[in-house]
């Protein structure tokens, strides 16, 4: 995956991106550094190729967009910050947008 043009959301079938040329521009969040929480994010992504990455690799190279988080997972009204224990859920994509 090349990062030159910005980051894409790694949830299966999502076309959000930090770069409007590569998808629908929206807010993307880094994976957590914590190994256990990182694992939960990977499982939510539904992508087998992420399962053998380390938490730091995921943190540095992969992003999940805001569409996969419930409203209560956000720290602020603008939805630019997540709660410390937030975990994405790919099934809720676009529901509240
Ligand atoms: Zn997404």
User: Order of strands side by side in the largest beta sheet?
Assistant: 1-2
Average the pLDDT over all residues and give the rounded result: 88
* Rough outline: globular
Hetero groups in this structure are: zinc ion
Structure class? alpha+beta
Weakly predicted, low-confidence segments = none
Report Rg. 12 Å
Number of helices: 2
List SSEs in N-to-C order.
EEEHHE
Number of separate strands: 4
Which sheet architecture does the biggest sheet show?
2 strands, parallel
Tell me the strand percentage band: 5-15%
| Amino- and carboxy-terminal Cα gap | 28 Å
Helix content: 10-25%
Q: Give the quaternary arrangement of the chains.
A: single chain
Protein architecture, described:
The protein is of the alpha+beta class and 97 residues long. Helices cover 19% and strands 10% of the residues. The chain contains two helices and four strands, in the order βββααβ. The strands form two sheets. The protein has a two-stranded parallel ribbon. The longest helix is centred in the middle third of the chain and has 11 residues, at 35-45. It is globular and about 30 Å long. The mean pLDDT is 88. It binds zinc ion. Zinc ion binds at residues 9, 11, 14, 16, 65, 67-68. Keywords: DNA-binding, Metal-binding, Zinc, Zinc-finger. Residues 1-91 form the THAP-type domain.
